[in-house]
Design brief:
The structure holds 2 protein chains of 2 kinds.
Chain A (H helix, E strand, L loop, with lengths): L10 E4 L8 H14 L1 H17 L6 H19 L12 H28 L1 H4 L7 H28 L11 H25 L2 H16 L14 H4 L3 H13 L6 H33 L2
Chain B lengths: L5 E11 L2 H17 L12 E12 L4 E5 L6 H8 L7 E7 L2 E4 L12 H11 L4 H15 L14 H12 L6 E5 L7 H16 L3 E5 L3 H7 L2 E5 L4 E4 L2 H12 L8 E4 L5 E7 L4 E2 L5 E9 L3 E12 L7 E4 L7 E3 L2 E9 L7 E10 L6 E11 L16 E3 L6 E3 H4 L3
Parallel strand pairs in B: 3-7, 3-8, 5-6, 6-7, 12-19
Antiparallel strand pairs in B: 1-2, 1-4, 8-9, 10-19, 11-13, 13-17, 14-15, 14-16, 14-18, 18-19, 20-21
The chains are: A mainly alpha, B alpha+beta.
Chain lengths: 288, 411
């Protein structure tokens, strides 16, 4: 027999009562699980990334391809005057290449949580592990994608002879915030997305539309109502600032960025909470 | 008395039959949960049913509970509530200590990664720290017993090999509570022995175990109590044999006492009653059986299959049909009976089971079968299962006289 007495063992109780009714224990367990999930999150990220590359011939090229191709398309359209784009304050190819790469980073962040959690539905239904590991794993995978794309960004900047200024390092912060925003949006859609397949379609469609509703391939419009694309679209401040920081070392849209960041921090926690309390309900519905 | 490791009090769980409605209810439950409303979880909505209803038990350290019942009885659902994967709709579950489930062996395996890489993934999912895996890696690889495949992608593994590898990782945990769900069904005999040994080891060291199995032998060997569960009801037995009998009644609804019966709903003929004058037989006696039937159409040239199984012997002790004896049997239309007699039984002091089956011509359809437990009472000084007439003769080379051993004994 074990020497430990039963009284000293950690106790867990499962009841029908809503978890948000006991907020203190809910938040405590959320934080404890976040800490406990670090190693698993890392393992899952390593597993998914190596599996992805092992089964692919073009491998790392896929990280560049979507943004590179759409950038090339717009460069050609612009050059042939098919589309009329006002002055962007820098070489248009540079503007577009940086823009599409940043958008791609954001788009991957949005899609990551639902993709990772759906991929784990089999183990979710059978093993009890800290559910936060899946979010962290989605974040790690997005960050890995960012590091790969950073090589592309560096290459583009070098090719156009851009001199990085010291304040360009701040772009790292705005890009991380861009990823954060993407993960939170994706995570907010995950619980419902686990139940109904429509959500992943909506994400795909939304990202396609969002590409044009965000000043990625054109400069931020200044006349109302189109200027709302830059001020009311939460993606715009991060994306535009990252681009100008990288190329020119200046920040655009400081006020919207502060507003979005404050909202982001608040909604991050709520989104996490939603994910957390919805898990048992979703698991009950997705598994046979 | 110390506290139980598992306390289940009045636990119920409902499920929904319709997918669309299930998703809709899920969305509504989701809203209710987030808003903190204690929605009416204890009433059934349209298309819902109780998968687990008002279940209660306690399990103390070192105890094993067998959870048996036919498919769809809610055994796995109950395990998942214990595991905390889903919440009960009614009641309360309290678990103390570290819990591990031998349910999804090889959880999280990526098919394109090698066995060795997957060990780390699987261990992380089970909550085993990396340093523990590093120090036990050779042991785990050894235990899995698939040395030639450990560096191949898991997609090349057979299902048995995948389970072996998963078990090798899981076997190095020492949980306070272990949940086992049908893992023994996959894997070969060697693997099953490993599994059972591990379960026995953990039980001895004070782990509380909940074991779901369809193997009544495993249940009888390891369990202290059994919870027999069907879709509608459940009953907790401390007498394992009684529990196993109750389970068999659930699985074979035609079971009556110890006699296993089966009457097919074949058109045209019905077997109404079976008379067995005696189920205890001495040496050289006969086994008689009378089958009453009612036939609306004649069943010609049926085949009567008789077999006898005897405790302690593998396979059939005796098996024959009427054709073995060159005998044709017709069951004419109307009501009547069929007598079957097996003569001169020579089984010694043991239990057995007669099986009788009636087939339509050329075994095209099984009309009827019964298995009747019998007892052979001849208690002679003979240690085998059967007694056959054996002659003993001695021969003295000095004389021409040959005598039976019995006669010689008087000398």
């Amino acid at each position: 027999m074990r020497s430990r007495s039963v009284e000293s063992l950690p106790t867990a109780t499962f009841t029908p009562a809503s978890q948000v009714r006991s907020p203190v224990s809910l938040v405590t367990s959320m934080l404890a699980d976040l800490v406990a999930s670090r190693e698993l999150a890392w393992r899952l990220a390593v597993r998914d990334i190596s599996a992805q590359y092992r089964q692919s011939i073009l491998g790392v090229l896929w990280a560049f391809m979507p943004s590179l191709l759409s950038a090339l398309l717009f460069i050609v359209l612009h050059q042939k005057n098919v589309v009329n784009i006002p002055d962007v304050g820098m070489a248009y190819p540079l503007f577009v290449l940086v823009g599409t790469t940043l958008w791609q980073i954001f788009a991957e962040a949005v899609a990551a949580p639902l993709r990772v959690v759906t991929g784990a539905s089999a183990i979710l239904a059978k093993v009890s592990f800290p559910r936060e590991a899946l979010i962290l794993s989605a974040l790690y995978q997005t960050l890995f994608g960012f590091f790969v794309k950073a090589v592309l960004l560096a290459g583009v900047l070098l090719y156009f002879g851009t001199m990085l200024k010291p304040q360009s390092m701040l772009a790292l912060v705005t890009i991380l915030l861009l990823i954060w925003l993407g993960i939170v949006i994706g995570l907010a859609l995950t619980p419902v997305g686990m139940l109904v397949a429509d959500v992943s379609q909506i994400i795909t469609l939304g990202l396609q539309l969002g590409f044009f509703l965000t000043p990625v391939v054109y400069p931020a419009p200044e006349s109302f109502p189109y200027s709302m694309l830059a001020t009311w679209n939460p993606v715009s401040p991060y994306l535009l600032s990252s681009r100008t920081l990288l190329v020119q070392g200046t920040v655009e849209h400081m006020t919207p960025m502060v507003v979005v960041t404050v909202c982001l921090l608040g909604s991050s926690f709520l989104t996490w909470l939603l994910y957390r309390v919805s898990m048992p309900i979703i698991i009950e519905r997705i598994s046979a | 008395m110390s506290l139980p490791l598992i306390e289940v009090q009045g636990v119920s769980k409902k499920f929904c039959r319709s997918l669309k409605r299930s998703i809709w209810y899920g969305l509504r439950d989701l809203g209710g949960e987030v808003l903190g409303r204690g929605s009416d979880r204890s009433t059934l909505r349209r298309d819902e049913f109780w998968a687990v209803r008002d279940t209660a038990f306690e399990l103390y350290p070192g105890e094993t509970l067998g959870l048996i019942g036919p498919n769809g009885a809610g055994k796995t659902t109950l395990l998942r509530i214990l595991h905390g994967l889903i919440t009960p709709d009614e009641g309360r579950v309290t678990v103390r200590g570290r819990m591990q489930a031998l349910i999804a062996l090889g959880a999280g395996f990526s098919p394109v990664l090698t066995g060795r890489e997957n060990i780390y993934v699987n261990a992380a999912i089970l909550g085993i720290p990396r340093r523990d895996v590093d120090s036990r890696l050779d042991e785990i690889v050894d235990f899995a017993g698939i040395p030639d495949f450990i560096d191949s992608p898991v997609q090349n593994y057979s299902s048995g090999m995948t389970v072996r590898l998963g078990f090798a990782v899981a076997a190095h945990l020492e949980p306070d509570i272990l949940l086992v769900d049908e893992v023994l069904a996959v894997g070969d005999e060697g693997f099953q022995v490993k599994c059972l040994n591990k379960i026995g080891e953990l039980k001895a060291s004070g782990t509380a175990i909940v074991l779901v199995s369809h193997n009544t032998h495993t249940v009888s060997t390891y369990c202290d109590r059994v919870l027999v569960k069907s879709a509608r009801e459940h009953e907790l037995f401390t007498d394992i044999a009684a529990g196993v009998r109750a389970y068999k009644r659930l699985v074979h609804p035609g079971l009556d006492g110890d006699i296993e019966k089966h009457c097919s709903a074949a058109p045209g003929i019905e077997f109404m009653q079976v008379d067995i004058p005696r189920t205890e037989m001495g040496l050289g006696e006969e086994f008689r059986l009378r089958l009453y039937y009612r036939a609306t159409t004649a069943c010609e040239d049926v085949e009567i299959d008789i077999a006898l199984r005897v405790a302690g012997e593998a396979g059939w002790h005796y098996q024959a049909t009427n054709r073995t004896f060159g005998k044709r049997v017709d069951l004419p239309a109307g009501e009547g009976w069929l007598d079957i007699t097996v003569h001169d039984l020579r089984v010694v002091h043991t239990d057995g089971q007669f099986a009788v089956a009636v087939w339509r011509r050329d075994r095209s359809e099984l009309l009827f079968w019964w298995r009747i437990p019998v007892r052979f009472t001849a208690a002679l000084r003979c240690s085998g299962a059967n007694l056959y007439p054996t002659t003993f003769r001695t021969h003295l080379s000095s004389s021409e006289q040959v005598s039976d051993a019995g006669h010689v004994a008087s000398r």
